[in-house]
Specification:
- Helix 2 (about 35-50) links the parallel strand 2 (about 30-35) and strand 3.
- The chain has helices at about 15-25, 35-50, 65-75, 100-105, 105-115; strands at about 5-10, 30-35, 55-60, 85.
- The chain is about 45% helix and about 15% strand.
- It contains five helices and four strands; from the N terminus they run E-H-E-H-E-H-E-H-H.
- It has a four-stranded parallel beta sheet with strand order 3-2-1-4, with helices on both faces.
- With about 120 residues, the protein is of the alpha/beta class.
- It has a single domain, classed as NAD(P)-binding Rossmann-like Domain (Rossmann fold).
- Helix 1 packs parallel to helix 2.
- The protein starts with a strand and ends with a helix.
């Protein structure tokens, strides 16, 4: 069985490191990214240069049609997906914890704060 992985948010940081590690472990890798095609292409090139197989697909994983298109492209170009790393996420503005309001910390905290 071929090992084929999708790494969401695979163009930078932990996602990029995970994509490189998966490729080094024998996976063909698809990196999904939201906006930064240059970063995604650089990770794909690193994997290919190391002898692996990789591709990048722009997809917003909060949009069902994008997810469907992502899997369809991987199926067509690499084969059936055998692993998925859900790494994509969008952070709000970076700040210290003591600067965050209750809603930013957690929905449950926000509900408790609203009741008091």
């Amino acid at each position: 069985m071929n090992k084929i992985a999708i790494i969401t948010g695979g163009s930078r940081g932990i996602g990029a490191a995970t994509a490189r590690l998966a490729a080094a472990s024998g996976y063909a890798v698809c990196i999904s990214y939201l906006r930064n095609s240059e970063a995604a292409d650089a990770v794909v090139q690193d994997i290919v240069n190391a002898g692996g197989k990789a591709m990048a697909v722009a997809a917003d994983v909060s949009v069902e049609d994008d997810i469907m298109r992502l899997f369809e492209q991987v199926d067509a170009q690499l084969g059936r997906v055998t692993a998925l790393v859900n790494n994509a996420g969008i952070l709000e503005r970076h700040m210290r914890v003591e600067e965050m309001d209750a809603g930013r910390l957690s929905p449950a905290t926000a509900v408790r704060a609203a009741r008091s």
